[in-house]
Structure formats: C-alpha cells, structure tokens
Write a structure and sequence with these properties.
Layout (H helix, E strand, L loop, with lengths): L1 H8 L4 E4 L6 H17 L4 H23 L6 H10 L1 E4 L19 E5 L2 E5 L8 E3 L2 E3 L18 E3 L3 E6 L7 E5 L7 E6 L4 E6 L9 E8 L4
Helix pairs in contact: 2-3, 2-4, 3-4
C-alpha cells in the first residue's frame, strides 16, 4: 500500500500489483493478459484485471484437465489470480492505439444464435527461440507456459482466450459442446454479467477455427 501511495502522489491513476511472491510464468501470463485487454480490447483497468484473472483461473483448469496429477504449479496459477489486485480508479481507460499499417489480422470471436465461432488468424508472429523452448502465437492469442512433450523441441502451446457475451433464457446457464476434444478447452459462466470465458488449445488441424454449440439449461443444483 505504501508503494502504491507513492505512485499516486506522482500522478498514477491506477496501480496493479501483489504483495505475494509470484512465479514469473504465472505473473507474466496475468500481466500480459491485463495489458492486452487494457490496450487493445478497450476495457477499463478493473475490467482488464477481471479478464486477466479469469484467464489464469481457466489456464489452471485446462492444465489440470490435460495433465492430471502430472500438472505442476497449479497452486501458483491460482495464487497469482487471487492475489493480484488494483488500487486506484477501476474505471480508467487507456486510449486505444491505431493499428499499424502492416498489422496482421487478430483472433476473432463471433456469436450467431447458439454457435460460438473462433476464427484463428492465418498468420502467426515470428517464432521466438530461447533454447530449449520456442514460442509462436497468433495476434490476439495467449501464452501461459503450457509446453509440448517433445524434449528436443519444446514449444509453448498457443492458446485462444475470449470473453463472450451470451443472451439466453432467464434463469438458465449455457453448456458448450464441440468437435474439439474436451481436454482442449474449458469454459466458465458469469451469470451476473451474462458473460462466458472460454479458453481453447487448438490443434494443428483447427487452423481454420473452432466452433462451439451452446445449449441453455437450468443451473445444476
């Protein structure tokens, strides 16, 4: 709190941080999720923090679903999501930058009736190679430390994360289905805001995109 006060005294509108020790993977994933949401998606500082927290919570769920007992540092992911907070004005917004002339198309999500469609960009950013790891992602994508099992060529798996407003019958909640295997995606529903959070690990053959069907049902008791 004292450190935050010093920044406010010098003109800061909001300060984001955590009093706890955080692993670089978890802290980096949340931080990038926050700033991407703030800078490119037009959300407020408070909305961006909520967006980043949901990303990290779903990432921990996806990792546990895929790896089971072999999943590591799931507690660190949860702790980072819980302990990062924002001081100051949660309604502050940053001016949205104008896209560069050579900007590549970004990940898109559309909802038509009861279908959610994720359109993956045709082009990815140039790969980054820091042996023994490599990373490659789409514009608008996410990275969070999930790696392939190939020991000689360990790629960070590119993820797609979207916040999806859904309009359905009052008193019911959405349940998703997809041709994509269940171990490759997780979904959470915010009933108060009528917004779903969807985290997807596309396969190579999903290069044209992924679709989900939405079925509305009464909440599970």
């Amino acid at each position: 709190a004292e450190e935050a006060a010093l920044l406010f005294d010098r003109g800061a509108a909001s300060v984001v941080g955590t009093p706890n020790r955080t692993y670089s993977g978890s802290g980096g994933a949340l931080t990038l999720g926050f700033f991407d949401s703030l800078a490119y998606d037009g959300r407020t500082t408070g909305g961006s923090m909520r967006h980043a927290k949901n990303f990290l919570v779903l990432y921990a769920e996806l990792k546990a679903k895929r790896l089971g007992d072999a999943a590591k540092l799931g507690g660190a992911n949860q702790r980072a999501a819980w302990t990062f907070t924002i001081w100051g004005d949660p309604t502050a917004k940053m001016p949205k930058p104008a896209p560069a002339a050579d900007a590549m198309p970004a990940l898109k999500c559309t909802v038509v009736k009861n279908t959610i469609a994720l359109a993956l960009p045709e082009k990815k950013y140039p790969s980054t190679d820091v042996p023994p790891y490599k990373a490659e992602m789409w514009p608008g994508g996410r990275l969070a430390g999930l790696i392939t099992t190939d020991i000689e060529d360990r790629w960070l798996a590119p993820l797609a994360f979207v916040e999806v407003p859904l309009d359905g019958p009052a008193g019911q909640e959405p349940h998703l289905s997809s041709k994509l295997p269940g171990k490759n995606w997780v979904f959470r529903w915010d009933a108060r805001r009528r917004v779903g959070y969807l985290l997807v690990l596309p396969r190579e053959k999903d290069e044209k995109g992924v679709e989900f069907r939405v079925k509305w049902e009464p909440p599970t008791p």
